[in-house]
Specification:
Layout (H helix, E strand, L loop, with lengths): L19 E3 L5 E2 L3 E11 L4 E6 L2 E3 L2 E7 L6 E10 L8 E7 L8 E6 L2 E11 L10 E10 L6 E4 L10 E4 L2 E4 L8 E8 L4 E8 L9 H34 L2 E4 L1 H4 L7 H10 L8 E4 L1
Length: 287
């Protein structure tokens, strides 16, 4: 029997090794540059590497492909470079390797970021319009990593003048029975191993018998509106008086003008020219 043959082309896929992330040193200080590299070897054809930060893909990365020593497979790497920010603390950075040999099941390497930063400080008052005799609580809200030490309260650059009424409870400053002597600038300081930060709050005690802030503002606005209306009215009266004064004049009655027997206005005017001698008593005035 004659011999029959057929040919087939065989493609052997190289399965990429599990990726690894290098370049991360914990912790990272806020503001420092971070350079993370993800690398995998043994892929054929070359594998694809993608970066994600909290499930959001990072596009601005560098990609490098190198042929292995066997000249059959490839080693690929990708580098992500960014500036550390406090918002990145606790973020999960992942490197994903996609390849046709993985059957839609990519290999993933992950790294949790740890960013250390100086505390941020903010003072929150319990009331915006404190009055004499009342109490107020100033809350010092501080965030930082590592966690800041207990906060320090001062008034006008010195210690709190009345510890019996000004009581510090953790991050809160409670001032009881407010009076005018409590007016001033209160400062809250928070410190950790990275640095120190502070915030200030100016306390102004209001007299309960006086006008409170919002009402006083309303009175001022109403008074201003009334003053504008009065001013506009006076200006209108003055301008109207000046206009009427400039246009004041006289005219002769029909009888003085000789209009009683005149057939038309022109004749009446001509007749009036000779009869104005005795017409003084017949003048009428208008304003």
């Amino acid at each position: 029997m004659p011999v029959k043959t057929s040919k087939a082309f065989l493609t052997v896929l190289g399965v990429p090794e599990s990726p690894q992330i290098t370049g991360f040193v914990s912790p990272v200080m806020e503001g420092d540059r971070m350079e993370l590299t993800c690398k995998t070897s043994g892929s054929k054809p070359a594998a694809d590497i993608r970066w994600f930060k909290n499930d959001k893909e990072v596009k601005d990365v560098k990609y490098l492909k190198e042929e292995d020593a066997n000249r059959k497979t490839f080693t690929v790497s990708s580098t992500m470079n960014f500036k550390a920010d406090r918002s990145d603390d606790g973020a999960v950075v992942s490197c994903r390797v996609d390849h046709e040999s993985l059957h839609s099941s990519p290999q993933i390497a992950m790294q949790v970021l740890e960013i250390h930063y100086i505390p941020s400080v903010k003072i929150i008052p319990s009331t915006l319009w404190p009055e004499e005799g009342q109490s107020i609580t100033l809350i010092c809200e501080s965030k930082g990593k590592p966690l800041p030490d207990p906060v320090l309260w001062t008034k006008d650059g010195g210690e709190l003048p009345d510890p019996e009424r000004m009581i510090v409870n953790g991050r809160e400053l409670n001032i009881h029975m407010l009076n005018k002597t409590d007016n001033g600038t209160y400062r809250c300081e928070a410190e950790n191993s990275i640095g120190l930060n502070s915030a200030e709050y100016v306390l102004i005690i209001r007299d309960p018998n006086g006008y409170p802030g919002p009402t006083g503002t309303d009175h001022a606005v109403i008074g201003g509106i009334v003053a504008v209306v009065v001013f506009v009215t006076l200006c209108s009266i003055i301008l109207l008086g000046r206009y009427l004064a400039r246009h004041k004049g006289t005219y002769l009655t029909n009888e003085a003008k000789g209009a009683e027997d005149a057939p038309d206005a022109d004749t009446a005017i001509i007749n009036a020219e000779g009869s104005q001698v005795n017409a003084e008593e017949k003048k009428e005035y208008f304003i």
